[in-house]
Amino acid sequence: MAALWRLSVLCGAREGRAGSKAASLHWTGERVVSVLLLGLIPAAYLNPCSAMDYSLAATLTLHSHWGIGQVVTDYVHGDAVQKAAKTGLLVLSAFTFAGLCYFNYHDVGICKAVAMLWKL
To answer: Which residues have C-beta within 8 Å of that of residue 96, sequence separation ≥ 6?
Structure first.
């Protein structure tokens, strides 16, 4: 997880530079998170625990942040509006991660919550 966070920070810091190295690192990071989610979701089903809950919270938030960030980049035009949208996305992602961590700590956690929904 720490390596993914460092990759996210590294890619975000170099986003303003014109160069294929930063874009390549960002693309690789997105693929690593996607493949990690492919393994985490069945693992969380088979072994629901707090480590899985927090891992899912981090990877789902990062995956969603990068995905919605691409939508903002593609469809929001104008420098000021795009900057405001990206700031809003950063705030939304921070609240999402904090909310998922709060849910994991103070309630049943993501894995057990999904299992409870499936029992309905």
So the answer is: 61, 64
Pairwise CA distance, residues 109 & 21, whole Å? 38
**Alpha carbon distance, N-terminus to C-terminus of the chain:** 33
How many independent structural domains does the chain possess? 1
pLDDT < 50 positions in the chain = 4, 14
Q: What is the pLDDT of residues 33-61, one digit of tens each?
A: 999 999 998 999 899 999 999 999 999 99
Question: CATH number for the domain including 104?
Answer: 1.20.1300.10
SS (H, E, C) the chain: CHHHHHHHHHHHHCCCCCCHHHHHHHHHHHHHHHHHHHHHHHHHHHCCCHHHHHHHHHHHHHHHHHHHHHHHHHHCCCHHHHHHHHHHHHHHHHHHHHHHHHHHHHCCCHHHHHHHHHHC
